[in-house]
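Lecture 7 notes: from sequence to structure.

We start with a single chain of 247 residues. Read the sequence below before looking at the structure.
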Amino acid sequence: MKVKSILVTQPQPETEKSPYFDLAKKYKLKIDFRPFIHVEGVSALEFRKSKVNIPDYSAIILTSRSAVDHFFRLCQELRYTVPDDLKYFCISESTAYYLQKYITYRKRKIFFGKQTIRDLMDVIKKHKEENFLLPCSDIHKQDITNLLDQQKIKYSKAVFYRTVCSDLSDLANVNYDVLVFFSPYDIKSLFQNFPKFKQNKTRIAVFGATTLKAAEEAKLIVDIPAPTPQAPSMTMALEQYIAKANK
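Now the structure, written as tokens:
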């Protein structure tokens, strides 16, 4: 069966240089973007119950833009003025530059890795004397805390925001040839919104081992897995499938 429409369960790319748009143009596809999950910040009242006192920490580890947003949001709600000498350790350069939304970048102590927590750990290890705070979601990867524990870094993690299922009721009568999932929580959202969902002729694309496992546990047939040696990205996996299906 030919592929004519795809729903990607992520926000629409901010620039037109995305390979998804190239794919749509090349194969004359309808590609829509719709996040199946989103984050919601915890309230100041909830945060106080965690008994984490932000002024106790001399450094903060920021793994995403959401972590940046919700750290400064909570500080404002708690009426806490972030000190100028707080040290920022960011997962990537783009996350570090995002801090400019809240602080005067050139006047702060900001460090960043290349893209992963392992890259950032090389920088963190040089500052073992700091007391680190790790703002995170209620759902987060254990590899971050595992590495911090292995290196005997003094830190505390605290939930600043939650990952929740989005309301997808407007998609109830909309059908796509391919659904593209990037996390187990996308799969959870699908069935939370549509408990009677039947795959039928819909092709399922998944990115990552944990997403693949969640799809299989939900009794979905995965037609397009990624990454693979032949297709390290989701768009490459989609194109390889579509090139055969649309002959």
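The two ends are 10 Å apart (CA to CA). Keep this in mind for problem set 3.
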